[in-house]
Amino acid sequence: MECTISTMGCNASAHYSKHKYNETAIKATVLIQRWYRCKRAQLEVRRRYSLTIFQSIEYADEQEQTQLSNFFTFMLEHCVHRGEVARTSTGSDVSPGTDSYVIKYEKIDVPDSYRGPRLSFPLDISHAKTLLNALKDRQLLHARYVLQLLCETRRVLKEKPNITHVSVSYFKEITICGDLHGNLDDLLLVFHKNGLPSENNPYVFNGDFVDRGKNSMEILIILFVFLLIYPNDFHLNRGNHEDYILNMKYGFAKEVLKKYKDHGKTILHHLQDIFSWLPLATIVNNKVLIVHGGISDTTDLDSLNLLERNKLKTLMKTRKLETDKKNQEEHSELTEKERKQVLDILWSDPNKQHGCTPNQRRGGGCYFGPDTTDQLLKRYNLKMLIRSHEFKPDGYDLTHNGKVITIFSASNYYEAGSNRGAYIRMNPDLVPHFIQYQVCACTDKKKNWERVKTIEQSALQNLQERIFVHKRKLMDTFAKCDCKNTGRISISDWAAVMESVLQLKLPWRMLRSRLVKTDPDGKVDYMSCFCYMDTARPMHQVQPTLVETLCKYRRDLQMIFNVLDEDRSGLISPNEFRKMWKIFSSYLGIHSHDEAVDKLAQSIDFNKDGNIDFSEFLEAFHVVHQLENKAA
Amino acid sequence: MAEEGSNEDGVVAEIEKKITEAFKVFDHEGNETVDVREIGSIVRSLGCFPTEAELHELLAKVEEEEPTGYVHLEKFLPVMTKVLLDRSYRPIPEDVLLHAFEALDENKSGYITKEELVKHMTEEGEPFTEEEMEEMLSSALDPETNAVHYRNYISLMVVDETDDLPQ
User: Fold this and answer.
1) Which residues of A609-629 are buried (b: 16+ CB within 10 A; e: fewer)?
2) What's the pLDDT tens digit per position in A401-421?
3) Residue A316, pLDDT score
4) Are B139 and A32 a contacting pair at CB < 8 A?
5) Which residues in chain A have Cβ-Cβ distances shorter than 8 Å to B56?
6) Which of the residues in chain B have pLDDT under 70?
7) Chain-wide mean pLDDT for chain A?
């Protein structure tokens, strides 16, 4: 040891105390190391279960969404004029059979005061670079150019087959990106790391360009621009979120309507059609199949290639409206079999278990096992399947013996610091090379433990909202375990109830201390989890079930409201509100007294002419954690 | 509900459920195995504070004869249950931790310089990797003085634990 060497020759006592110090120092060091490693591991676990919470809720949400699309169409039917319905739900401006689909952009004036980017067609790479810079600076592309871009994009997409075949050579490697979900910074980062698209730098973007993130529109603009410049070297696959019904709920429609006050509805209307023209799959060197979701045991690539993909505006099952029934007779819809082919491609997830079963988690598509993969690869002489659709903490993942790759390109997806994104570079060897990245703008200054704390708080907030929404059922089920009415149940019972009522497979015992109080003897005070939650504005004297229902359907009601609010004023009349409420509650089979509904409406700030700011009203039903409010 | 039966059985059953839950957080493939490198995190998430040496010992008990890189739940469960029942690898009380930092603070100045800390942590005991060192410094180091004011640091780390609901 260093110390003994240097003290050789010193007197004995100095030598001894220095030696003792060293022993102590080493013990102290080991203790600190031991402590630190444990803290670090505990932090890592918190990060993991936070991500698990986000993921579980996301999937449960998607599952409910598929059930709710019927509700949405129902509301549209009853709350909106027939004319409206026809316009928003049928695809094209023209009767089927002819194709003079028009996107009118010429009449839209671009004022001189407009300082944003201007597009001139045909586009070239210098336009694209200018545009990228402008969008990087968060400038908005004028609606006229957007619509013109959509017009040209539609023209190009129409020419493409359902399945695109591409080749890779040693001079021309291909890059494959997964879900972006409106994360513009990720797209820019990928272009920065990997180079802009060109004839020698081809790209495949594997769906889910929009929803959730804040810059879905900008991403679409960029992708469409490059599609037009390099139509043979830039490929887009449709994802399950390229679907107007999902866009209503998951943020894209809202983003467009907010950014484009005058022409947002028109843009969305045309995107309905354009999304349906997106190709369904890409095959590289006849060996690598790229689709957004996955496959099923009935996937038939030949059938997929032949069906008329543009007839599938949405993958959601919608109720047949009177006008639609007429269209159906003219064969403007796919058969159920064809619809399933596309649904499976866009919604399925790989699974460890053999076989192919319906995807319960999502409510659409399948869970496909390694045998299903092998079967398909063998049948079409393919080497592997690349897909996206699922969040992955490292941006990518391999499964089914490396034959199925998931690529996910939206970093910080749930929260700043939650995950990395990745993309694949592939050469003729067809061995994928993964490049990971993470947009760090907001996390630079944050320390690791602060980041984890933020992620955890956000995840728990989401979870608490869900708990609140299921309050009634939870209380009933807890009561069944607590026959003696003590208000306490065992940890085991508590965990079991939480899992069965909320239908979320989470590590409940780990989360327990964050959600509920436990007595020193180990019994859970099950009512305590509700004490810390309330709605943003406490609504007393309103039926609890009413409040819970409004919480649960808050986002869906928002969708309806956006459709109802023709003049984008943000207001609806009390009558409209009552009418909507009556229909809503009759559909869901909940009973509410008229007085309760009126009281509810009255508890919101009316503006001078007595209208209800419905957005404000819905905001009131956002679940908040009371402790946070107290701190703020 | 689970009121009858010997209390001990209830305790063991609850412990086993707790362990299984923690295990499953790391079980990506859903097939009751985890990567051997995650065992440390699992053990620590259950409230244990083993040294690296103690962890290696534990690993030896749960690994397969042929090192596959994976650990099965069925091997891990009994070993970990015993650890929890025996209350092995107890957490470190705050005051003990404070003494440890004080022991490294030769001058009793209330802080340890970056160089000193790095030297101890990366050269002695069960040395930190570069990554571990960097991470510790990122939250412990006061950039203005380039030193670790350990009392502050400890209270910061302890506060972090009280995200739990007030019990």
Assistant:
1) eebbbbeebbebbebbbeeee
2) 999 999 999 999 988 888 999
3) 79
4) no
5) none
6) 1-8, 159-167
7) 82
Task: Report ipTM for this prediction.
Answer: 0.91
Residues of A involved in catalysis: 241
| CA-closest candidate to residue A207, choices A185, A175, A181, A184 | A181
Quote the distance between the C-alpha of residue A27 and its chain's center: 49
**pLDDT reading at A368 higher than 90:** yes
How do residues A200-242 score in pLDDT, each as one tens digit?
999 999 999 999 999 999 999 999 999 999 999 999 999 999 9
The closest of B23, B47, B46 to B36, measured between CA atoms, is B23
Topology given in CATH for the domain delimited by A544-631: Recoverin; domain 1 (1.10.238)
Domain ranges of chain A: 65-437, 467-530, 544-631
H or E stretch covering A434? strand A433-437
Is A1 near chain B, with CB under 8 Å?
A: no
- The number of CA neighbours under 13 Å toward the Cβ of A320 is 9
Q: Is residue A496 exposed (0-12), middle (13-18) or buried (19+ Cβ within 10 Å)? A: middle
Per residue in A541-571, pLDDT (tens digit) is 556 666 777 777 777 777 777 666 666 666 7
- A578, two tokens: 């009552």
CA separation (Å) from A28 to B52, B124, B127, B148? 15, 10, 13, 15
Class of domain A467-530: mainly alpha
Question: Given pLDDT bands bounded at 50, 70 and 90, which one contains residue A68?
Answer: low
Q: A65-437 — its CATH code?
A: 3.60.21.10
Does the beta-carbon distance from A491 to B14 stay under 8 Å? yes
3-state SS class at B70: strand
Tell me, yes or no, if the two domains A65-437 and A544-631 fold the same way: no
